[in-house]
Amino acid sequence: MFAWSRLLLRREVVANLHDGTAFRGILYRKARKLVKLRNATRLGPEGPVDCDGAVVLERTAVQFWQVPQ
Q: For 36-45, b where at least 16 C-beta lie within 10 A, e where not — what string?
């Protein structure tokens, strides 16, 4: 993530992964190679699935970010 990632902290984001799936949640924390989403929902072809607890993603697995309005 770049310096703009500080603007996304504590905001709702959609992380689109290289494999075609996506996660929607609150970007809670970022580390060197990892990001943590809270209150996450997995968005896939079968529909949205709520995730228990936090979701930790490798930053290299994220293709692009979206900020829903």
A: bbeebbbbee
